[in-house]
Amino acid sequence: MTLPNIFQLHILIPWIISMLVGILVGGTPGLTATMAVALIVPITYYMDPLAGLAMILGVSFTSIFAGDIPATFLRIPGTPASAAAVLDGFEMSKKGKGSLALTIDLICSAIGGLVGVLLLIIIAPPLAKFALKFTNFQYFWLGMFGLSMSAVLSTGNNVRGLISAVLGLLVSTVGIDITTGFPRFTFGNIELMGGIGFIPVMVGLFGISEVFKNVKTRAHLTEKTINDKIDISIFETLLVVWKRKWILLKSSFIGTFVGALPGAGADIAAWVAYGIEKKTSKKPEEFGKGSIDGVIAPTGANNAALGGTWIPALVFGVPGDSITAIVLGAMLMYGLKPGPLIFQQSPDLVKGIFAIALISQFFLIPIGLLGIKAYGRILSLPRNIIMVFVLIFSVVGSYAIRNSIFDIYVMLFFGVVGYIFENLNIPLAPMVLGIILGPMIEDNLRVGLIKTGGNYLPFLTNPISAVLVLLIIFTFFSNNIINLFRMIFRKNK
Length: 493
Hints:
Blueprint: H1 9-26, H2 33-40, H3 49-66, H4 68-73, H5 86-94, H6 98-131, H7 136-153, H8 158-172, E1 175-176, E2 183-184, H9 198-216, H10 234-243, H11 245-259, H12 265-280, H13 292-316, H14 322-333, H15 342-345, H16 347-378, H17 383-402, H18 405-423, H19 429-452, H20 458-461, H21 463-492
Antiparallel strand pairs: 1-2
């Protein structure tokens, strides 16, 4: 497949349309990137395979970015991968710098995506082989490492952050036990058999709680929803990003690596990159208060993770996340067999996928700017009107996942929980992280114990597990460890 063939009209037109659809879906709270891809796939049944994959790739990259638009302006993540963008993006928006935050976000998403795709092209086979060395033991510790970020994500009080994370873990245990088939914490309610949906919880915690806060302060309801004028300067943004290029590069590598681990995905990659950046920052106290570093880290990581998820998908036919799981099904529909032989059997198609993924990052910038301006115009309406739309989209987004009225009640309940937690200064981000990682931690712990007959030792003896355990210890006690080394250094000096 030569590059000019990518720009044939029968590929280019649906490709661009799908990216515009991605902006619409990603920017609507509750409608995920996975849903966007699932909606696109049936349309591609009778299309050229490359045109179909161009639509799937285009919609996935733009919807992941677009999820950051409501996260920044309204504090409502458009997609799960955008949840980490709430922490500093929304704080910048409150200071009248929302358009700057989103332009930084857009540039970092495009660059992070480029890094992820380039790494996919260069090191796909060796990185995928390393990813397949992860067994249940390593995935358990990877989940625990992600959960340890809850201490990092908590502003001022690690104990409250851990309380929030543990409550998130408890929420994730509701439903049918996958090991025994026995219902847990359902209280006889059939609706709870399938567990508590993550999307209604997230929309409730961040979206509905924000509606409650605005209703409480009625004096502000007639004001504009966003304070800043949507004035975008690409040159100014590039200078800001250039000064923090190493943060972006580091986060992109982290995102690609986490994305290459089957089942991890862009949402976990964003949280891990944010947590690591805060922990290694010279100014960690600024995170959660409108830090530009806190915007760059997760947004660079989540788009890079999309490139990472294709590594095990293409090389071994193992989906990296829910999006690539759908993509693998689509490829089989086209008569293609993902795996090591795809590079020999369908080299033109693989080159075409790589070319589309790279060029999509350049298309993302003008389409993303269009999305920022469009949403900026809409959000210049008075706050009371926007809050009505937020409530409507929150209800629609929560219902659409499983076509369940019960999920709307779940959303409203967690809206109240989010409102109460914020009044008690309990952070919401660790709870979201606990709900995301809960199934991964529990499933791998229990399967690992079944394999070992209840012996915990194999969880610690593997070198990869040992490294992850050390990282967890360092996450909690890094300040003490650094201070200890400083004291030893001073004494020796």
